[in-house]
Amino acid sequence: MFEGFTLDRVQAGDVTLRVRYGGAGSPVVLLHGHPRTHTTWYQVAPALAAAGHTVVCPDTRGYGQSNKPASTEDHTPYSKRTMAADVVALMRALGHETFAVVGHDRGSQVAYRTALDHPDAVSKLVVIDGVPTVEALDRCDVRFASEWWHWFFFAQTENPAERVICADPETWYNAWTANGPAELGPENHADFLAAIRNPATVHAMIEDYRAGLGPDPRADAADRAAGRRIECPMLVLWSTKDDMEQLYGDPLEVWRPWCPHVAGHGIESTHHVAEQAPQALVDSLRKFL
């Protein structure tokens, strides 16, 4: 995987992140979702590098082999605001003052928070399979609660989800069925397995979701109330075989109050588009970036 890329550990603020980077040209950082690591981009990153970009792929804090700081009662160490600050610190450590940000799933929440909190740093924003957290919660109905019940299960601290997941992580995460080596690619699958088998990583990933029902929607709500908007050009992509359209209708309509420059379209894929429809994703990213 990632031929020609450098695998490194880079200090980013108060954490050290595992990161791969390669290519030359305008910089772009790719942020993975749950429960993936940076290796989810193994087909996308080299294609973007070949198209003339410096491509940076970190494991976000807590995920994969990046640091897993102790959390707090309010889960702020795993808030998207904290993770966004990591992204800016990482890119500056690598010599990039401004850059494009692409995020998928949980990584999409880090991506748009980076654009909101650090507008001078983010030149372009791509969100894949995501809407603002506060907008998702505002629209929570029976269908959402039925299909996305894990958001609320993960948030519990009295009977923590970590106990259930760590009892059999490979079954929980469909590691030999929907997320098997044929679907993910053998090296990417091996990295995924190592992550989900590590109880410390599982705990950190769940803290990400706990922050998603605490500091994250509060930050979104404060921005919305203040009229704060995403000022850079923005592309929204979604997997047509996932449930984005069923839950939200046209995802672009959800994003328009947040960004006057938003455009986007669906890609024929199930949820993990970087692994299941990499060429279509690369084509969309190259055109936008």
UniProtKB/TrEMBL annotation:
Keyword Ubl conjugation: no
Matching Gene3D superfamilies: alpha/beta hydrolase
GO molecular function: hydrolase activity
Location of the AB hydrolase-1 domain: 27-273
Domain of life where this protein originates: Bacteria
InterPro entries: AB_hydrolase_1, AB_hydrolase_fold, Epox_hydrolase-like
Keyword Metal-binding applies: no
Keywords associated with the record: Hydrolase
Residue runs in coiled coils: none
Stated name of the protein: Alpha/beta fold hydrolase
